[in-house]
Specification:
Blueprint: H1 3-11, E1 17-19, E2 22-24, H2 29-46, H3 48-60, H4 66-73
Helix pairs in contact: 1-2
Length: 75
């Protein structure tokens, strides 16, 4: 999901609520989860350390067989 798509979804949500004297934003949980996912993806894409970790993992080519995974997890 792009930032503009996320903004369009947020604009469709009612955002003028008050609890006591403080204004709050009320979002459906599905929209909130999409926001969290977008922010997480954005943070990962901007992290140099994360990118380096992925690059290192891809170059190692160490694979675990299905049987080893079953043994590890006791499946």
């Amino acid at each position: 999901m792009t930032a503009s798509q996320l903004v369009k979804k947020i604009k469709k949500v009612e955002v003028s609520k008050k609890i006591g004297k403080k204004s709050v934003v009320v979002l459906p949980i599905a929209v909130w989860r999409e926001i969290e996912d977008f922010l997480e993806d954005l943070e990962m894409s901007q992290s140099r350390k994360f990118a380096a970790t992925i690059k290192k993992a891809r170059s190692q080519k160490n694979f675990i067989s299905r049987e080893e995974i079953k043994e590890i997890f006791g499946i």
